[in-house]
Amino acid sequence: MQVHEHPATSPILQQALKSALPYSINLVYRTQHPNRTKDAHILATFSPSIAQVPQCWAAAYLDRSMRPETELWIFSTGEQPDHSVPGDRFCPECSQAVLALLDYMSTLPTPPIHPDNLSTLDLAKQHEKEHPNPPPSGKYEMTMGTYMRHLLSPKMVTLGACQDAMTQVLHDTGVIRNELPGPDAELNKFLFKHSDVPPTRELPEGLRWGEMREQDIELVKARTSIPRTTRTLMSLKSVGVFEEETDTPVAWTFLGLDGSLVTLHTEEAYRGKGIAKAVAAKLFRQYAAGLAVDEEGNAWSHADVYAGNIQSESVCKSLGGKALWKCFWVRIDLERAGMLAKIM
């Protein structure tokens, strides 16, 4: 199965992705986002010049220069519930399409890590020095060094929001690195139909709306364990709530590179007042209204919430969100992927 490079504006690719909404939502958003470096690749298992979308296909967005942030998103028609094979969860031809993408990616050069992220490489080197081999359990304990360990392998890629059935396909073929974070960290994919999102409520007295500024980013990064650079965060649309008297942010969220609700946070003194719900609703309405619209005219947004995060799940449900499938962030070893599609 041949893999083709596409421009972000590829009409047939955007048609294919739109026809698969809401299941293709990550790629619909990511291919449209202006944060795209010279090292980005938009790939599909069909040509940009074809007139009709094939029945089975896969597409991906890959940008290795983003590491240690998410580098890769993949979608395949095998993820759609009405596309499954009786007695199986993933169509064999769709599995082949996914493996063809990984095979192609294994041939691409690895760009140098961005200077802003060199400190994360130091963390990885220190972790390797302290833990040269995995423990008897086969999995490193979760630390920031563990999270960065994959940076030492040029062909190791962070794959984001990988739907559970596709994760199983990749696990069965041996390309997921199980000693690194991700395979056991299940997330619920919440989908929001904009017509179901409640109106944005008024803020309590003494607070105002605003966008997050560069001067606020260090506080944002201090409130999350997920590594995101100032450069990336400043490229994202955001909504913040500020104290009028001090001009200090007390709540915020961003529209991620893949359109997901990310870094949603409310400072402890302001929790329980419905502010997180208001911030998320305002972000969807202000910045996401026309970006992921299906063939029936429904506009979609989404969020990935770790299983057991009751507070975030409650916010998503209050916005009319429904958890429709499971997904994972995993490390893919492209060295193991080379030639895989040809031998399966």
List the helices and strands and how they pair.
Elements: E1 4-5, H1 11-19, H2 25-32, E2 41-44, E3 58-62, E4 72-76, H3 92-105, H4 118-130, H5 144-148, E5 156-163, H6 164-173, E6 187-193, E7 207-210, H7 217-222, H8 230-233, E8 237-243, E9 249-255, E10 261-266, H9 275-287, E11 300-306, H10 310-318, E12 322-333, H11 334-337, H12 340-343
Antiparallel strand pairs: 1-2, 2-3, 3-4, 5-12, 6-11, 6-12, 7-8, 8-9, 9-10
GO molecular function, one term: acyltransferase activity, transferring groups other than amino-acyl groups
Domain GCN5-related N-acetyltransferase Rv2170-like: 238-330
Organism: Decorospora gaudefroyi
Describe the structure.
The chain is an alpha+beta fold. It has two domains: 4-114 and 148-188 and 327-343; 193-326, Aminopeptidase (3-Layer(aba) Sandwich), CATH 3.40.630. The chain contains twelve helices and twelve strands. Strands 1-2-3-4 form a four-stranded antiparallel sheet, sandwiched between helices. A four-stranded antiparallel sheet has the order 5-12-6-11. Residues 238-330 form the GCN5-related N-acetyltransferase Rv2170-like domain. This is GCN5-related N-acetyltransferase Rv2170-like domain-containing protein. GO terms for molecular function: acyltransferase activity, transferring groups other than amino-acyl groups. InterPro entries: Acyl-CoA_N-acyltransferase, Acyl_CoA_acyltransferase, GCN5-like_dom.
